[in-house]
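User: I'm new to structure prediction. If I give you an amino acid sequence, what do you actually give back? Let's try with this one:
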Amino acid sequence: MYGNNGSVPGILGAVDVDEFNGSLADLNNLKGGHLGYVTNAGSNSVSVINTATNAVTATIRVGTTPLNIALTPNGQAAYVVNSGANTVSVINTATNTVTSTIPVGLFPTDVIVTPDGANVYVVNAGANSVSVINTAANTVVATVPVGANPVSLAASPDGAQIYVTNAASKSVSVINTATNTVTATVPAGSNPLHMVIH
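Assistant: Good question. You get back a string of structure tokens that encode the predicted 3D arrangement of the chain. For your 198 residues, that looks like this:
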């Protein structure tokens, strides 16, 4: 973990978690930014870190090979993509327990929650598709075909569009979240992997 003492950035400390950790959920949405959720792809778990004490406070069992994680805007739920199980685990952050396991497409690799918290988008790299999960019911309500070998997702600030990088087809698919259809396919360079919205 990194911090700033007012002049020079530096490492404040290190926290041991399980093997082959993947991604860290947004700290700002949980209890004043004092909890972090880390996916551990090698041990099929999520570590919960208290950032005030730099200690692991819980370890949550999820599906096989969890790669990425996203929080709802209210911080009440975390969605974990399990690439080896083709599922998404839903974690209740109040109890740190898995409350639902949702089947999605082949080899899910990334996940994003819309700014209003209504839907979760999951990219399925092995199925060339994106699964849309309604957070109220925790069920898949749409499957959107995209380009070849989709890898990651980004959302517009208003949540009206989801952008999908397609590594094998060298393109970005633009999904309209009102209709859950691809409205544009934008050419990109070789092997596009990630995208941010400025």
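You can read the tokens as a compact description of the fold. Here is one thing that stands out. The domain at 2-103 is CATH 2.40.10.480 (Thrombin, subunit H).
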